Amino acid sequence: MTRVVVGLSGGVDSAVSAYLLKQQGHEVVGIFMKNWEDDDDSEYCSSRQDWLDAASVADVLGIDIEHVNFAAEYKDRVFAEFLREYQAGRTPNPDILCNAEIKFKAFLDHAMRLGAEKIATGHYARVREVEDGFQLLKGLDPAKDQSYFLHRLNQAQLSKTLFPVGELHKTEVRRIAAEIGLPNAKKKDSTGICFIGERPFREFLNRYLSNQPGPIKDDRGRVIGEHVGLSFYTLGQRKGIGIGGLKDKGAPRGGGDHEPWFVARKDIAANALWVVQGHDHPWLLSQTLQADDCSWVSGRMPQPGAMAAKTRYRQADAACRLEPDEAGIALAFEEAQWAVTPGQSAVLYDGEVCLGGGVIAAST
After folding, report:
1. pLDDT at 359 (0 to 100)
2. Catalytic-labelled residue, pool 45, 98, 320, 354
3. Which of 45, 194, 320, 354 is flagged as catalytic?
4. Is-contact 137 28, C-beta < 8 A?
5. Active site annotation includes 354
6. Active-site residue 98, yes or no?
């Protein structure tokens, strides 16, 4: 019998993970991670309800659960980095950092102190043991696969990790939850960043970042509005730019009079935001990118050559060529990629195997 500590989030995926492990004969203990405290009583923070849901799941399954506070580690290792990236004009992905620093580091360390042999979470991914170590594989449900968010995990972390729902489709997970009478069987999936929840993003960032308004320019260099601070915009953004009603005199490349506006570039030195009309404007398309701060699941960079990559979570794998670069890697895509965003992650795949990736620094 293996002692497995499961991260119970209050959601249905981790609840079914705990159930499946118990069915397999493991000794299962639940841990609820509290990662954010700053305004925990606000209307947007669901942490109290999540804890109640996790505790009632543990009750139904007949397992112990412990409430552990990682808020200090989260603020230090994830949130501080998140703010640094935004202040520098990039768009970070805190979920990737949270997995690497909290769920598979602070939580893993805590679980090992409790005598765990393995930890488990409700992520849609799989681990496969091979001759020379462990591989991270995509979850079998293509609509839910979360390997993108887990690509910074290393061999030591994967060797101790189980992903019980990675073999299942989401519909099957909900069916099991309903069948065994879990109280959260129909609970909606959480969206948004863990510490922001459903709150208005700009209002949240405003509390932490100082921002300087500046010009919004179109692709001809004309000033057509004022931005509220570059940190509040991301490449490819369409809503909330603040120039909605503007009509263009003589349409630019890639757009017509009534085409929507998109954020295309951020000039930090000049504090200018550049926008273009039309989803397929050339400024929004990149054939190559450079990424640094790379992390490889196997512990070493893959051989240069043909593979596939994602430059954002919700996209199909795109065929590309990998080459080493001074600071990390360079990727050249067969087809131009849309709104490649500095601060986001470029994650590499060989079929269903997630190889790792890096943080996008620039694209052309």
Report:
1. 98
2. 98
3. 194
4. no
5. no
6. yes
